[in-house]
Amino acid sequence: MDDRLSRRRERRVIRRRRTRRSVAVLPTLFTLGNLLCGFASLHYAANGNVPENVSSLPVNAYAIAGYLIFGAMLFDMLDGRMARLARSTSDFGGELDSLADVVSFGAAPAFLTLQLISSLLFKGGAPGQDLLGPLATTLVGRLFWIIGAVYVSCTALRLARFNIHNRHVEDSHMVFRGLPSPGAAGVVASSVIFFETIQPSTAHVLPFNVPAMITHAIIFIFPYAMPAILLIMGVLMVSRVVYPHLINQYLRGRKSFTYVARLAVLLILLLAEPQITSLLVIYVYAFAAPASSAWRKLLKKPPPAHVLAATAPRPPGPQTLSAAPDVSVPTEGGAAGATDATGRLTP
To answer: Under a CB-based contact definition with an 8 Å cutoff, are residues 110 and 152 in contact?
Structure first.
């Protein structure tokens, strides 16, 4: 009798292991979806100056590239959920997620910005002339390329810093040092989508009316403002400014009815005017934290209690990788605050 029970238990354990192994493929597929969205964004950004390549689509190439970055953010959010459901965390998934994020949230936004700026400012150049790049013939072209390179480098540094201090416990990720890389990429993508939407000559799925005076002003300022935004996003990613984890702080657990009603209003606005609503929400998230930090320093006020508790030094646990002592708590959270295929919060 005991032998039968023992064999049954062994068979159950084997079945569970097989199930976990089969389900564990899903986080990897979602992480690869993140990577492929970034790769597709690079493709459409490269073809932005050739409208006939996408003439059959209701959205122009630059807007498609921006939407694909948001698609990468969605995959980045879901791969961690799949990993937790499968109870399959591994260093392999974490490394794969970081490689995908470098492409989707580092190279793709920077390349998209440079391509759009090139089409706006340097479209009259002679064929074969390098007007925007490391060997550009103009100082402005070299400067803009350097800013894009700084952004990509900051993204890589952000991911490396996160991997050093990665903890596999989700409850420890309530705030993060520095802007998460999906948040920085979201600022760039939403700016490009908004810019492409307001132009009357550009085909778009959900256009909305903006006064002509404002439209002309934005079109004139945009190619000069985007490099500045790109540089600021790069600096914020490697900064020590404390950012809240959106999922863990605002969406997990039980909330009041008023809080849920506010989220419902925000969802309605997002469905009614997705471009302008996403633009405002992401910009508020990116700039509210440094503004609040600067205001507190100006008034010499201490950080909030939850920030002090979350950023207090912790002794290294069995699941914590060793790190340099001056590196702060885990820094990545994603725009949606998800975990990656290792169960960690994704950058």
So the answer is: yes
Does 55 have pLDDT greater than 70?
A: no
Q: How confident is the model at residue 163 (pLDDT cuts 50, 70, 90)?
A: confident
Which CA distances in Å does 120 have to 71, 72, 208, 220? 26, 26, 22, 9
Contact 246, 336 (CB under 8 A): yes
CA angle 182, 61, 205 (to 5 degrees): 90
In angstroms, the CA 62 to CA 50 distance is 11
Question: Rounded to an integer, what distance in angstroms lies between the CA atom of residue 319 and that of residue 331?
Answer: 16
The one-letter amino acid code at 296 reads R
* pLDDT tens-place string over residues 76-133: 888 877 776 766 667 777 788 899 999 999 999 999 999 999 888 876 555 556 678 8
Longest dimension (CA), the chain: 86
Q: Are 294 and 212 in contact (CB under 8 A)?
A: no
What 277-283 contacts at long range (C-beta under 8 Å, 24+ apart), as own/partner pairs, is 278/70, 278/186, 278/190, 278/193, 279/190, 279/191, 279/193, 279/194, 282/183, 282/186, 282/187, 282/190, 282/335, 283/187, 283/190
Integer angstrom CA distances of residue 210 from 55, 94, 213, 272: 24, 43, 8, 15
Distance CA 292, CA 245 (A): 16
Cα–Cα distance between 263 and 195 in angstroms, integer?
26
Beta pairing partners, 242: 177
CA-CA-CA-CA torsion for 256, 259, 263, 266, nearest 10 degrees?
A: 160
Alpha helices in the chain (DSSP H): 2-23, 25-46, 61-86, 91-102, 108-121, 139-164, 181-198, 212-237, 246, 257-272, 274-299, 305-311
Query: What is the pTM assigned to this prediction?
Result: 0.77
Place of tokens 């008034």: 299
